[in-house]
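explain this.
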Amino acid sequence: MLVLVGGVASTLPAALATPSAANIDAVTAAKIDELLALRAATPDARSKGELVELLSRQFLGTPYGADMLVGSAAQPEQLVIDFRRVDCFTYLDYVEALSRSTDRDQFVANLIETRYAGGRVDFLQRKHFFTDWAHTARVAATDVTSAVSSDAVTVTKHLNAKADGGNHLPGLPVVDRDITYIPSAAVNDTVLGALRTGDYIGAYTDLPGLDVTHVGIVVTTPAGPLFRNASSLATDNKVVDSPLADYVRSVPGIVVLRAK
């Protein structure tokens, strides 16, 4: 997903950003340590999806913040680590990195690998699109959309190419990619039942040059699956759980990635 960003960040040049040198505010540092302690106390038998659910649950109520990252083709990329506010994609970045970490330095290193291709803090290396998680090293998830539904549709998208011939993000190349999604009308009880806790969901868009417009996490419950997400809606403006079936009806379709 496209993420244009702004927020608290490291003051180091991108090329010098390292785990030990990351600039982290006191609130975020305390929260990282709290969540890593929670992860350390989690039984080894817990699945990756259950771990994602446990860690993502700790962010419920966290205020939404738009455009949380800093960097462009003309502005040096900065390493942003700020748990005080999250947008929909930085939320997933943090949860995924936490799920693979045992200490703060390891978390920062895993965050860099999750957010940037090749683990290099650079605007051109940032994974700007949701499906980059399944296509760009370090691969964080597997695209299981077609396995979840036989009604899945595949279209070729020219990511970053606007309809008027310009680019959503100047300075980035256009990437041709086959995007598979499940149309909303085909998301029935069978499809919802095939989703797993911890799956990452993207809201597919018909807009040229984009794959999804919003992302979140599936949480299965006896009452039906929830969509855990950093919501920018005026009625929410924070990380919330909402019925996934209701959300799906408001978008053209969904892309499903399963954490590795």
Notes: The chain has two domains: 14-125, 139-259.
